Each structure stands twice: as structure tokens, then as C-alpha cells.
Predict the structure.
Amino acid sequence: MLEKLNASRIESADLYDWDELVQEDRVHRLIYTDPAVFAAEMTNIFGAVWVYLGHESQIPANDDYITVRLGLRPLILLRDAHGKIRALFNRCTHRGTTLCRKDKGSARIFTCPYHGWSYLNTGKLRAVPWPDGYACNFNEAKYNVAQVPRVDSYRGFIFATLNPEAPSLIDYLGAITKPIDEWLDRQPKGRIRVCEANRLKYKGNWKLAYDNSGDGYHVVFSHRSLLEMENRQADVANKGMSYYKGSPDTAPMYIAYMGNGHHFKDKRPNIQKRAGGLWAVEGPAPGSEHYADALRQRFGAKAEEILDLASSEPVNINVFPNFSLLGNHIQVFEPVSVDETNVTWYGTAVVDEDNALGGAVDEINALRMRTQEQFPNFGEVDDLANFEEIQRGLACQEDEWIYMHRGLGIPGRVKTDENGIITAPATDEVFMREYIKEWKRLMKATPKLVVQREP
Ligand code: FES
Ligand SMILES: [Fe+2]
């Protein structure tokens, strides 16, 4: 069965000359518009590499679950009765219906709504109604729910892959762990808790979002109204994305390609290194001044560090293919079809069990939640409009190419260090050229994906 599946997959990955579709300076429109390419991606990318599923704080206790997707495969991501994190296929082994239709909850047993087969949250079949009508042996493993064979976490972030040949998660993440660590280590004990989400969708290919996630070239044009609005709220006209004004390529921020498709836009060098430096740029928003005044009265000079924790960190940490840390949010891309994508922005809260923040944790988290009203609501919509308009533009079949050659061929502009990290000025498209090379390498491969079942 799996062998036949793999055989048909080789053919679909072989549909195109991938070197023709992805060239040094440009890509062909078909990589965004062809359903056959999308179908191959669901295997070669959203199956064969480590894909982000969720955060451990979303399933804090044994028996907690959330429902997520691995490509198009519905999953139940859970902590089983023994504390083990598992990603079960959300699919009854009887007739294939989904077992769980809720977003989240707590369950030791999942009972199929169709004919009532029930399963333990380890994936093992527990009981079937009127078993006398069956001659088979229900202890056979094939009746247990299929699950993703490799599930692993990096500091709370849970990833999974169906590919036994994939490297370990830590090796896959590689150099991008450094900015992830720095992002986490700002918080007490390096921990966060994932909050509720802001859910968006657009009619466009998922790669349009990943292409854009490190794009510093569009900011002042696409996000002009947000930029102007934010600057009206600040004491000085330097808020938020203002560092893209003037000549962004000479600013100290930069874009870095970190290997394995991951890239990192680091705008932190634009911010003054002092307590309160981040708040001064990122903090001002309607109503936030009351919190800031109250915290300063309560904590004096220490209030500035507290306010920095409430601010969005100026980074875009993008883990191929579907995970970004932006400001203090987690963004997850979820392909739906070749021209439809879900984009979910999760807020994150500081956890302070030891009261290192002197009782300010609720104020910090209230202010962090309000940052959803900044870029995630008023900037992301600009980007989604662009993605939809690109998808519309790509219907022009005769005009085949999309360029990503900004910075290519300019001596001294793009630099590679001894670890292979490639850096360039903030508006450079080198990260797109590099990640799409990795995408091409993966699309040429013939991964043998497997599932696992409890014995
Ligand atoms: S499909 Fe689940 S019990 Fe029949
Ligand atoms: Fe944008």
C-alpha cells in the first residue's frame, strides 16, 4: 500500500524540470498556481520536513489535546494519559471519519461519532460496538489509530515529520535556534505561554506568505497607512516600522539566511540598547500610556525593563515551512489548497511563577495582548491583500516569471560567514533565493513517508 503511494509520488515529483522552474534570479508562476505542485508539496515539504504543530503550553496537562494539521492531514496533537506528546491522525480506522471535531479539550478516550469505535489517547483501539458481528482480531495493530512517527519539541515548540530519514529536529533547526533562544530568554526562565489567536485567511499560495516573511523591500509602500498611524501615536516619529524609511539598506538591521530554508530578519540593532529602549519605539499605543505611568509609579527605574517585556521584539524568525516568531507573536501558515492559505497569529504571554516581575505579570500580558492591535491586525491585512493580488496576477499564463534578484550580482552586498550564514541589507531578496533553492532540493527528492501505530 505505502509502496504504491510512494511510486505515484515519484511521478508527481517528476512532473517538471525543477531546475527550469526555479532559477537563480527567478521562479516560474507554476510553483504558485499548479495543483500538481501543491499536491507534491504536501508530501515533499509538509510531510518530509519538520513542520510546526503547536506549543507545549497549549496541552499543559495529561489528556489535553488540540486539533491541528500536518499539510492537509488532520491531526490530534495531545499529551497522552502517561504524559507523552503524540500526533494522532484525526481519522477513525473503521471508515475514515475524523474522530475529534473540537479545536481543543481534554480527553482520555476518543469515540468516533459515526459508529462508536473508541480509542485511548495513546491511539490504541479500546472497544467497538457489538463486536460479535466481527470475525477479526481487534488486537491487531492495524486497528489502532495511525500516528506521526516523529514528534519532538524545541524549548516548548512542537514539530513533527513523517520522514524517517529527516535529520533530528535540533539539526534541522540548526542556526535558527540562536535567535529562537534569544527570543525566549528575554522572558523569566525563558518561558512563554501561548494565548488565543487571531485567525486570517487569504486566497493565495502558502509560499507567498513565506516569501514575504523576511521581505524588507515592501514595508514602507505596503504598510504606509499603518506606519503613518503609528507615528501619530508616538512622541517622536520613529515608531514601529519607521526604520524602513529613508535608506533602510544602510540601517544596522539585516536579513540572514540560516540554512534549511530558515531565515531571520533582525531589526534589534536599530533599537537603543537601554532599559526602556524597546518600549520607546514599540510601546506607544492608545491606552498604553496609562499602564506605563502606573508601572513607573509602582516600580521606578525597574519599570523600563518591565515595559520592554511588554513590547513586541523587532525580529522575524522564520522556520521553514510554516512557523514564524514576529514581535511577541507566533505566526503559523497552513496551506489549504494551491490558492488558499490560513494564517494564524497566536499571542504569547509571560509566565512568572517565581514572581521575578514583582507582580507586574498581568499588566505585561495585558499590554502584550494589545500588540495584536498593531501589526497583526493593521499590517497583516496589507500583506494578505498583496498575496491575493499576486495570485490574481499570476493568472496571466503567458507572463511566466517572478523575480527575486534584488541584491544579486552586486559585489560585497551579500556576505557568507564561516558557518555558512548569509547576511545582506534589510531589503535584499537573498533569503528568498536561498530558501527556494532548498524547496527545489526537497521537491526533487523521493521521501518515503511512514506512519506508526501502537502495537
Ligand atoms: S467510521 Fe468511525 S466507527 Fe465507523
Ligand atoms: Fe508586510
